[in-house]
Design a protein that fits this description.
Number of helices: 13
Number of strands: 10
Strand order of the largest sheet: 6-7-8-9-10
Radius of gyration: 22 Å
Strand content: 5-15%
Oligomer: single chain
Largest sheet: 5 strands, mixed
Order of helices and strands: HEEHHEEEHHEHEEHHHEHEHHH
Helix content: 40-55%
Shape: globular
Distance between the termini: 18 Å
Length: 338
Amino acid sequence: MTIQEFLRIIHIIYLVSISEKSLRQKYLFRNRILPELLHVLREYTSEKAVETFFDLLTVNLSSNDKRSISTKTEIRNLEIQPLGLSFFTRFPFLFYKGNCYLVNHGLLNYALDYYIYDFLRDEDFTTEFGGRVEKYIELSLKELNVVFKNEASLRKMLGKGSNVVDFYLENENIFIECKATEVQPYAAVNPTDTVLFKSLKDSLLKAYFKQLQTAARSLSPNTEAWGIILTYKELFWSDFRDLYQVEITQYGDIVGYNPLPPENVFIIDLYTWNRILYILKHSNVSLQTILRKAKENNSHISTEKLLFSMHLESFLIQASDTEIELTFLKAEQTIIDL
C-alpha cells in the first residue's frame, strides 16, 4: 500500500463519516463498515490496498489476534496508564463477530494528521522528517516573499561552531527554530519539572536556551526580538513561559538584559502555521503583529490562551486547513484530491 492509497482510503472514510446524514446511500451503520463503503474504497484504490489498510489498522478482539496492540506511546506505570494515548490511535478499527467497526469518529482526524508519523517514527525517519519540516517552512516563507537568512547564512555570520536557528526574519526581528518533536507519554500525564526537563532538554528547551537565545544576543542584543518554535504535533503551550520555569529550576535565571524573553517566544504547530500563512497572504497583517497580539492576550488571565491557534480567532480572516492554498503543495494536493 502506498502513502497515496493510505491517504485516499482514510480520507474517503472521513468524508463518509461526516456526510452520512446527507448521503442517499448508507455506508456506515452504527459505526459498522458496510460492504457499500468497501466497494467505494476499492474503486478509488485497489482491492489489495483496501485489504492491506484494514489488516494494518484493525484489531481483532473476536479471535486470537497474535499481533501486539502495544504502541510506542505505552506507559508502564499502571496508576497513570489510563491517561496515556489510546492504542486505538494505531488501531482505529475493531473486528468483532464478523463485522468491522470504526471505534470513534475522532480517531479519523488523528489518523489523517499523525498516523504515518507515528507508524514510521524511529531515529532515521525523524532525522529525515526534521529536514523535510525545515524545507516546508523555507518554501512557505518564499511563498510570502519574506526576506530571511537560513541556518547556513547565519553560520557564516556567527562562526562555524555557533548555535544558530533555522531562519531569521531580519525585517521583523523574528527567529524561527523547527523542532519535529512531541512530549513523551509519561511526561504528558506526569508533567513535573524534573520529568519535563528530561523529556524536553534536547528539543524545546535546547531550542530556546541554546539556539534562539544565542542567535538573538548575537544579532539583536539591544532590540526586542521574537521567537517561534515550530513543531509538528500540537503542544499545550501557547508561549514559552511555563517551560522557562522548568529550565531555570535546573540552571538558574538568565542574567542581564534578555532580548528574547519567554513571553516573546511561541510554540506553533504546522497546521496553525498554515493558518498564519493564510492570514499573511490575504490581509495587511504582519507576522510580528500576530505575535504581539498573542503576547498581549497571554499577559491577562482573562484572555490567556492554551494553544497558539486560539490567538488567531481575533483576526477577521478565518482560515480552515482546507481553504489554504500553497503553490508548492499543488502537485501533492492534486494526487489525493477526491
